[in-house]
């Protein structure tokens, strides 16, 4: 990590998030620097869906070069289901698989439109990536795997269900 310019931060610290946004803005304004690789989901999912993107990556401006990545599990599954397999079992399965095959699509560059906020821009990029990979779009983030569901989210889903019924 010392050979490249990683930006490490604690997501729960507001001060760190502002510092990261500032560092990203400075980085993209310097045309001599290489592009930044960001995984805006913040976590991995099981290769079927694209979760909510964290908006911070889309607040700083600049051009986004979306990349859709989807693993082909025919020879070995790269996804680690931590509720089903221990780290040792996962590592063993990964190391003894025939191959890890991954499809990668480099999509056309995207720029935030004038009337668009960071959340809408992130959702537009997410939809393009999901469509290319043949995956579904999820309106929630990876935190649901590890945390209790917020009451406001439950209420929103209940309202949507009531409208359908």
Output the keywords.
alpha+beta, 5 helices, single chain, two-stranded parallel ribbon, two-stranded antiparallel sheet, 6 strands, 165 residues
Briefly say what this structure is.
One of its GO terms (cellular component) is endoplasmic reticulum membrane. By secondary structure, the chain is of the alpha+beta class. Helices cover 36% and strands 12% of the residues.
Largest sheet: 2 strands, parallel
Radius of gyration: 18 Å
Quaternary structure: single chain
**Kindly state the mean pLDDT as a whole number?**
83
Q: Please, how many helices?
A: 5
Termini distance? 52 Å
Family: Belongs to the 1-acyl-sn-glycerol-3-phosphate acyltransferase family.
Membrane topology: Multi-pass membrane protein
Keywords: Acyltransferase, Endoplasmic reticulum, Lipid biosynthesis, Lipid metabolism, Membrane, Phospholipid biosynthesis, Phospholipid metabolism, Transferase, Transmembrane, Transmembrane helix
Domain Phospholipid/glycerol acyltransferase: 1-70
Task: Provide an overview of this structure.
The protein is α+β, with helices and mostly antiparallel strands and 165 residues long. It has one domain. It is 36% helix and 12% strand. It is built from five helices and six strands; from the N terminus they run αβαββαββαβα. It has helices spanning 14-29, 56-59, 87-95, 118-133, 151-164; strands spanning 49-50, 63-64, 67-72, 101-106, 110-111, 136-137. Strands 1-6 form a two-stranded parallel sheet. Strands 2-5 form a two-stranded antiparallel sheet. The longest helix has 16 residues, at 14-29. The chain is globular. The N and C termini lie far apart (52 Å). The model has no long low-confidence stretch (mean pLDDT 83).
């Amino acid at each position: 990590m010392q050979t490249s310019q990683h930006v490490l931060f604690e997501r729960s610290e507001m001060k760190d998030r502002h510092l990261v946004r500032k560092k990203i803005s400075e980085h993209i304004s310097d045309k001599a620097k290489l592009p930044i690789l960001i995984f805006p989901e913040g976590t991995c999912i099981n290769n079927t869906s694209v979760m909510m993107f964290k908006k911070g990556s889309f607040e700083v401006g600049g051009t986004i070069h979306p990349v859709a990545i989807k693993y082909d599990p025919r020879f070995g599954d790269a996804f680690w289901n931590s509720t089903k397999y221990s780290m040792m079992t996962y590592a063993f399965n990964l190391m003894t698989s025939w191959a890890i095959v991954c499809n990668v699509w480099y999509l056309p560059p995207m720029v935030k439109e004038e009337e668009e906020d960071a959340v809408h821009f992130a959702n537009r990029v997410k939809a393009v990536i999901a469509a290319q990979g043949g995956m579904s779009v999820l309106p929630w983030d990876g935190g649901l795997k590890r945390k209790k569901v917020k009451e406001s989210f439950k209420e929103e889903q209940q309202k949507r269900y009531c409208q359908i019924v």
